[in-house]
Design a protein that fits this description.
This protein is α/β, with parallel strands linked by helices and about 120 residues long. About 35% of the residues lie in helices and about 30% in strands. A hairpin with a 3-residue loop joins strand 1 and strand 2.
Length: about 120
């Protein structure tokens, strides 16, 4: 596992999946997504992977991130949260994402799903 941290997120890189934790009260914009995409491209190169967003903290994701901010090598998206409001928000976001999408209450469930994906 390789770890990267900046002013708005923490990223944990694994062989076939990545876990991203967005810091509290962050508006995750297309510019921030572009920064993350550069890191993902650098690490995974042309290899497929699954993204897990562990929503430990309250934050917002700009709709444009889903419309313009996706990598073709990202094959699935898992959202992890034990909060019912996050589940409702994820259901709205799912409509903006056209690949495999899942919601989990624990990070271990999401890791298992991501590992089994390939």
């Amino acid at each position: 596992m390789e770890l990267f941290t900046n002013d708005f997120c923490q990223i944990e890189f694994y062989s076939s999946f990545v876990i991203i934790v967005i810091k509290e009260n962050t508006l995750f914009t297309l510019d921030k997504a572009t920064s993350v995409r550069k890191k993902l491209r650098s690490y995974y190169k042309k290899n497929d992977f699954v993204l897990i967003t562990h929503r430990k903290y309250k934050h917002e994701v700009a709709e444009e991130v889903y419309k313009q901010g996706q990598l073709h090598t990202m094959k699935g998206l898992a959202i992890v949260s034990s909060c019912a409001d996050e589940r409702d928000k994820a259901m709205q976001e799912q409509q903006l994402y056209d690949k495999s999408f899942a919601f989990f209450e624990t990070i271990e469930e999401a890791k298992s799903w991501a590992t089994a994906y390939f």
